[in-house]
Amino acid sequence: MSKSFALNGSSRTRYAGNEIIPVVQDLSLNIQRGKVTALIGGNGAGKTTLFNVVSGLLKPDKGTITYISNEKEHECHLLQPYEISRLGIGRMFQGIRIFEKLTIYENLALFKFNINSESPFYTLFHKKAFRLLEKDIKTSIRDILEKIPGTDNVFLNDLNKPAGNLSYAQQRLLSMIGLFLGEYDLILMDEPTSGINYESIGDIRSWIKKFMEIGKTVFLIEHNMNFVKEIADYCHYMASGKILYSGQPKEVFENAEVRNEYLI
Questions:
Q1: Considering just the CA atoms, what is the radius of gyration of the chain in Å?
Q2: Is the same domain home to 31 and 68?
Q3: CATH code of the domain in which 193 resides
Q4: What are the pLDDT digits (tens) for 93-149?
Q5: How confident is the model at residue 4 (pLDDT cuts 50, 70, 90)?
Q6: Are residues 259 and 236 both part of a single domain?
Q7: Do 148 and 222 fall into the same domain?
Q8: Assigned domain for 209 exists
Q9: How many helices (H) and strands (E) does the chain have?
């Protein structure tokens, strides 16, 4: 199985007064192409920091991050976040990252149009360029909305209504639709099921499976262990900035430390 990206000896520290605290410690792991890999661990384990390092929001203090695309290796630790995005790495953040006063359509258009730009505000200052592409963007949005949620859904029916009118769960799902539009190959998802209802968790599970059907790779942080058991092909348990256990979810969950952490 070919790998999608690899971290080799990556570390990241933070400062608390005069104290240096290791958050990610000499961490090495490979993510397999076309698979769902889950990263689990307690609060403060370093999971989100690791995602920030992978996506370029933080630079590793040492080590390398290599992304393999079209049989070429790219050294992500040397790149800016927008350059990493251009390579085909997309991210769904733990918190809501949409513009509530913009319409559903405008939010999705930003996802689609900004894939090749340096800033999420690029569209706002290049309206002429946007207008030239708007017909194609509208077609892409409608195609995705009809294929993923289906022909009768709140996003398609209310395209011209403010995204702020959506529920929290719907806003999370809107972010996922944006990942489809961005045409990313590797998708980072930070706690996709956090704070949402059972029905919407089912939607997220179904949509991740659709990611896999079209050849995507998913790397997710998750605290819902039932969800991990159902969706993940591979699992890493992280504590104190280190990967302690790796394997198939069933194998990892049989470990006493993991069982104690999640009371399973």
A1: 19
A2: yes
A3: 3.40.50.300
A4: 987 788 999 999 989 988 876 554 445 455 555 555 556 567 788 888 888 888 888
A5: confident
A6: yes
A7: no
A8: no
A9: 11, 10
Kind and range of the H or E run holding 93: none
- In the sheet where 3-16 sits, what is the strand order? 19-32, 3-16, 62-69, 72-75
Same domain, 195 and 81: yes
In eight-state DSSP terms, residue 95 is S
Domain that holds residue 60: 1-88+185-200+214-264
What tokens were used for 48? 């989100």
Decide: 182 and 116 in contact? Cβ < 8 Å.
Answer: no
Report the length, in residues, of the chain.
Answer: 264
Task: For residue 48, give the nearest of 91, 97, 86 by alpha carbon.
Answer: 91
List b or e across 213-240, with b for residues whose CB sees 16 or more CB atoms inside 10 angstroms.
Answer: eeebbbbbbbbbbebbeebbebbbbbbe
**Category of 54 on φ-ψ map: left (φ > 0), alpha (ψ -120 to 50) or beta:** alpha
Check residue 206 and report its DSSP letter: H
Indicate the number of domains in the chain: 2
Token output for 164: 């702020």
Q: Percentage of residues in the chain with pLDDT exceeding 70?
A: 86
Q: Give whole-number Cα distances, 207 to 158, 192, 204, in Å.
A: 20, 11, 5
18, 27, 56, 245, 254 from 249: Cα distances, Å = 39, 20, 28, 10, 9
Q: Is 12 helix (H, G, I), strand (E, B) or coil?
A: strand
Considering the domain architecture, whether residues 50 and 14 belong to the same structural domain is answered as yes
